[in-house]
Specification:
30% helix; signal; globular; 138 residues; alpha+beta; four-stranded antiparallel sheet
């Protein structure tokens, strides 16, 4: 993936995972997938501030679809590794045409917004590093 595309993905991903705004966020769809005991999937259309940032960057007003699927469940209740696909159609390309743009990522997440305890290698955590309380991480 070209560096410019990587930066775009990072700029878009951070607010989508951490956003507390109203509307569908990647985080809310991931939590819905974790809570879906039937098949561990959820989907929606990205809305709110994250969608506006994405559309401004992509120069396309087409909706952004979010599809999440549980890849693995952890022993800790309500925690899973979730795969997420974000996709937008009709994104202008350099040659003047339009093409779909999307990306996939996976994240370890619990429904409280924190990572599963057994997915963190605590031996690598610096005890002198500043820490955040769980409420600061939400």
């Amino acid at each position: 993936m070209p560096r410019a595309q990587q930066l775009l993905v990072l700029a878009l991903l951070c607010p989508m995972v951490t956003s507390q705004a109203f509307g569908a966020t990647a985080k809310s769809v991931m939590i819905d997938a974790i809570n879906n005991s039937d098949n561990g999937t959820a989907s929606d259309v990205l809305t709110g501030a994250a969608a506006e940032v994405w559309k401004a960057q992509s120069k396309s007003d087409s909706p952004i679809s979010i599809n999440a699927k549980v890849v693995k469940r952890f022993k800790q209740p309500n925690c899973a590794r979730v795969g997420v696909d974000l996709k937008q159609e009709n994104v202008p390309t350099k040659d003047g045409k339009a093409a779909p743009f999307g990306f996939h990522y996976e994240l370890n997440l619990c429904t409280d917004g924190l990572p599963p305890a057994d997915s963190v290698d605590w031996s690598k955590v610096n005890p002198e590093a500043p820490s955040a309380s769980p409420s600061q991480l939400k």
